[in-house]
Amino acid sequence: MSHTPLATPQTGAPAVRFEDFGLSADILRALADQGYVHPTPIQAEAIPVVLQGRDVMGAAQTGTGKTAGFSLPIIQLLLAHASTSASPARHPVRALILTPTRELADQVADNVKAYSRHTPLRSVVVFGGVDMAPQTAALRAGVEIVIATPGRLLDHVQQKTVNLSQTQILVMDEADRMLDMGFLPDLQRIINLLPKERQNLMFSATFSPEIKKLANSFLKNPVTIEVARSNATADNVTQVLYKVEEEAKRDAVAHIIRERGLKQVIVFSNTKIGASRLSRHLEKEGVKAAAIHGDKTQAERMAALEAFKQGGIEVLVATDVAARGLDIAELPCVINFDLPYNAEDYVHRIGRTGRAGASGDAISLFTDKDARQLADIEKLIKHTISRLQLSGFVPPRSADRRPRHEGGSEERQGAVRSSYGRSGYAPRKEKVDPWFLKPYEPAPQSASDEAREDASQPGATKQKAKVAALLGGMPKR
């Protein structure tokens, strides 16, 4: 089980402790089980405000513990309604936490379960790609906290397996993505099902002016909490760029992994097919890799994530489905095989490393065609990323990878074939059917052909053609 790391005391860190917030003994006991004593800056700022019942718009660098920043005070607020009764009526949905991806929903649910383990409060995670039956059973049994993706939640609403009429707190985690990529109609439907009087919390690493405008449409006098410059990247993450030709990028990734001795790294691709191809290439190079993207089933995605966390897989090749919320303890490095189309996704991608104060490396490959994307990223983060040479990497020659077929002697062709290295491709041999090389020969006449020729001769008696009968038997003579 993976939890968002909470900061430990450091030199110059404030002396505030979780017990200073007035959290219940059951919550403090759960935090002690995890070894957490001191809050991170976003937690120190957010927890008191949420406990006051205020709406919050919280912005902080990814990896700083936003999940605990809203889940801990929610658990505290709901303890007043906690019940040990087995009756579902005593456990209505009082808090709804929405996330954009299944993986993030699962991770938030793990955190909520860990922090509420010593309380009577119940929670369930609801997302698509898996059987609805276990989710339905849990919802009908009664839960106070629901963590969900919008689509699957609406499925349960349609099936009448969840009632949101008593929901007191709505949370949008990674709110910018929730409002910015097609979720808005679903969110509006969900919001219309909630009571008018409720507490609204929005947390994310990035907030654009457009997103803030949308958020203000349903937040009521929100308290804005920004513990770091909006859209900033962590100072403890070293960012570098390597310029590599497009056809050499897969070999460059394999080279980086081998040279640095990386045993746990996430590589981001912009496309699903690109992620699958890179994963297969790394496997051929002897690197344990797996791809995770939208075409994978939820069971396959969760299995790959678990194997990655346990060390069975060294490289997780992912699309942006994994850019948000994934919490891998002490992940040393992330690699951008492709620069993201959306500059804000760069912040989330590299936020997978350097979490909770640890150091990390963010490596990006780029080509000439990425100039616009790179400019957008550097404008967003207000930082020029270092351009370096990829030492020790000899890109395969394009002629070796895709040789042209040229005429010449057999000796010359043999010499070309023998020059291919490990990563090259053999010349394609065209298959030629020997039948097309034979001279023309008239086809032998069949019996029917001879009969037709005889009938065409002068004076020949024309024979009546035989007609086959279908279903009705032979015709009468």
UniProtKB/TrEMBL annotation:
SUPFAM superfamilies the record matches: P-loop containing nucleoside triphosphate hydrolases
Basic and acidic residues biased stretches: 398-414
GO cellular component: cytosol
Helicase ATP-binding domain residues: 47-225
Region (Disordered): 392-477
Domain (DEAD-box RNA helicase Q) ranges: 16-44
Enzyme class of the recorded protein, top EC level: hydrolase
Top-rank lineage group of the source organism: Bacteria
InterPro entries named in the record: DEAD/DEAH_box_helicase_dom, DEAD/DEAH_RhlB, DEAD_box_RNA_helicase, Helicase_ATP-bd, Helicase_C-like, P-loop_NTPase, RNA-helicase_DEAD-box_CS, RNA_helicase_DEAD_Q_motif
A molecular function GO annotation: nucleic acid binding
EC number: 3.6.4.13
Reactions catalysed: ATP + H2O = ADP + phosphate + H(+)
Residues of the Helicase C-terminal domain: 236-402
Family recorded in the similarity comment: Belongs to the DEAD box helicase family.
Protein name: DEAD-box ATP-dependent RNA helicase RhpA
Originating organism: Noviherbaspirillum autotrophicum
